[in-house]
Amino acid sequence: MTAPLDLDATIGKYATGAFDDSTPLLEVGLESLSLLRLAVEVAADDDAEIDATRLAELRVVGDLKAWLGDLAVVDGAASC
Q1: Domain ranges of the chain
Q2: Which superkingdom heads the taxonomic lineage of this protein's source (predicted)?
Q3: 33/60 Cα distance (integer angstroms)
């Protein structure tokens, strides 16, 4: 059994300041390259397809956490 993914800690590695779910991504220094790095880090499958359209729609940390959570799930089971 794997431990659940701590998205706050994972995002914190790339953020430049404190954040909560309503913090705008740009306010904490999360831009496209850091978002892609986050996606690659949490993707449960090495061959996971990253939806660039959905990535472009992310505005706040809560949106990012929901998106990353979707990437981290394989067949209904969370991966670390």
Answers
A1: 7-75
A2: Bacteria
A3: 16
pLDDT above 90 covers a percentage of the chain that reads 60
What is the 3-state secondary structure of 2-67? CCCCCHHHHHHCCCCCCCCCCCEHHHHCCCHHHHHHHHHHHCCCCCCCCCHHHHHHCCEHHHHHHH
Residue 39 confidence (pLDDT): 92
For residue 15, pLDDT over 60 is answered with yes
How far apart are the C-alpha atoms of 51 and 8, rounded to whole Å?
Answer: 21
Q: Are 7 and 34 in contact (CB under 8 A)?
A: no
Rg for the chain, CA atoms, rounded: 12
Name the CATH architecture for the domain at 7-75.
Orthogonal Bundle (1.10)
